[in-house]
Write a structure and sequence with these properties.
Chain lengths: ~100, ~375
């Protein structure tokens, strides 16, 4: 079981983009890809990022991943976003951005 | 109450700037002599006048533009694409960032006598083609960053064009830099919404100045051209009519209020900084329309001086109202049309100005004294 909740707020427009996915509801190949992206990002072991002063007009991101045994939320901005998380972010944004 | 000023002191800022930049040595010296014989100076002219003197007698810092290309990655600043003085290249985003930062620098210089973002000739660095599908532009504390919108989607699905397309967006981002060096308003809640409004106000003034539009002629739209034709909207925000810029099945409706009674309390977007800015934007619009003429000359001047001399990091809407009113009284006189227009602008968005007795303008200080003071040579 895995659930992912994604939110992007702020930006020049101040418009929130969000998404909540239960992998069980996705076609198996898509669910597999997302699970793999979470694993490869080392999501549950990433070092906590120091909080930063908000960037004017910058986006703020929050990604929550929940499994049977654990749950974690990572917050980041455009300039301190962990590189290892970017492939997962790209996948989530592609789903959330234009709907 | 009216004040008398020397001819030089009442020269419009754009003419002072012309003298500073293009005048012969003799003309510059004459400008200085004229200053020395004047009897009074409006505070707002001091910065401009001192810029003239600096231009005449010392080498002022000269801001250089550099536009970088992130090549759809997120590493800043990226690869140099165009430097100050280079001819245009075959990349429209690069050229827009270059021209737009130049236009912004020009407005600040000509209208307010400001030497770049930090008033000390700071270089203007911009990065374009930031990230893939990046529907945004931001100021990272040191430079401007622009995405290309929805370039990664099929045309029929695209909502956003590149963010350099809109000159007021460029002016908006650079103004975040100015605010950072001046009031340094906290980017949260009402302080943050005031920070945002200041960026919209001066961003719009950059566009109006470049187009030569009066307040009545201007569209007061922020982010005109950012939406593709797939979106039902004229831009991101409307200072003239907040809440009406777009209404679209995918993007929803423009959430900006135009009045304090509709102030939005939210934890998102740093406390709704891009939402409640509509209230201040509209107050500025109302004042500028009432004053008439070119908005950067009077309303812009009042706000510029308030931003640079009076607002602090914790200022809220009420403080901005009181201080712009006070500043208008200092520059244009107590009960002047300009001061009343500032008051009426705030009243129009539900904010009552406090303090009808502003600090009186300096009396007996000549242009030269003000100038020497501004240069740190007199008290």
């Amino acid at each position: 079981m895995m659930r992912i909740v994604f939110e992007r707020t702020g930006g020049f427009m101040g418009r929130k983009v969000s998404l909540s996915i239960d992998l069980a509801d996705l076609p198996p190949d898509q669910a597999g890809t997302l699970k793999q992206l979470v694993d490869e990002s080392n999501f549950f072991k990433l070092t906590e990022l120091p909080p930063k002063t908000p960037l004017p007009d910058g986006f703020m991101y929050s990604i929550t991943v929940e499994t049977e045994t654990t749950q974690r939320t990572i917050h980041a901005s455009d300039t301190n976003f962990p590189q290892t998380l970017r492939p997962l972010l790209e996948n989530l944004l592609a789903r959330a951005r234009v709907r | 109450m009216s004040h008398r000023h020397s001819i030089f002191c009442i020269l419009p800022p754009h003419m002072l700037d012309q003298v500073a930049q293009n005048g012969s040595n003799a003309q510059r010296e004459m400008a200085a002599r004229t200053l020395s014989t004047s009897s009074q100076i409006r505070d707002r002219r001091v910065n401009v006048a001192s810029a003239v003197i600096r231009g005449a007698f010392t080498a002022a810092g000269t801001s250089q533009r550099t536009v970088y290309d992130a090549k759809f990655g997120t590493k800043l600043p990226g690869t140099v694409a165009r430097k100050e003085g280079d001819t245009p290249i075959a990349d429209v985003a690069v050229n827009e960032a270059y021209d737009g930062s130049g236009a912004t620098r020009d407005l600040y210089s000509v209208a307010f006598g400001r030497n770049s973002i930090d008033n000390n000739g700071m270089n203007l660095n911009s990065t374009v083609h930031y990230d893939k599908g990046y529907d945004n532009a931001f100021w990272d504390g040191q430079q401007m960053v622009y995405g290309d919108g929805d370039e990664d989607l099929p045309p029929a699905e695209r909502l956003f064009n590149r963010f350099t397309i809109s000159l007021d967006v460029i002016g908006h981002e650079l103004t975040h830099g100015v605010t950072q060096f001046e009031a340094n308003l906290v980017y949260r809640n009402q302080q943050g919404a005031l920070n945002e409004a200041i960026s919209d106000i001066f961003g719009s003034l950059v566009k109006q100045y470049q187009r030569g539009q009066t307040a009545a002629d201007a569209d007061w739209i922020i982010g005109e051209g950012l939406f593709t034709t797939n979106v039902n909207g004229v831009g991101i925000r409307s200072m003239k009519a907040p809440g009406t810029a777009y209404n679209d099945p995918v993007l929803g409706k423009d959430p900006q209020p135009a009045h304090m009674k509709d102030y939005v309390t939210t934890s998102q977007d740093n406390g709704g900084v891009h939402i409640n800015s509509g209230i201040v934007n509209h107050a500025f619009y109302l004042s500028a329309i009432e004053i008439g003429g070119y908005a950067w000359e009077k309303a812009g001047q009042i706000w510029y001086k308030t931003l640079t001399d009076k607002l602090t990091s914790n200022s809220n809407f009420q403080n901005a109202a009181d201080l712009t009113f006070q500043t208008a009284g200092e520059i244009f006189g107590v009960d002047s049309l300009e001061q009343l227009a500032i008051k009426n602008g705030w009243t129009g968005v539900g904010i009552t100005v406090n303090g009808t007795t502003p600090v009186p303008p300096p009396s007996g200080d000549g242009c030269l004294k003000g100038l020497l003071h501004s240069l740190g040579l007199a008290r």
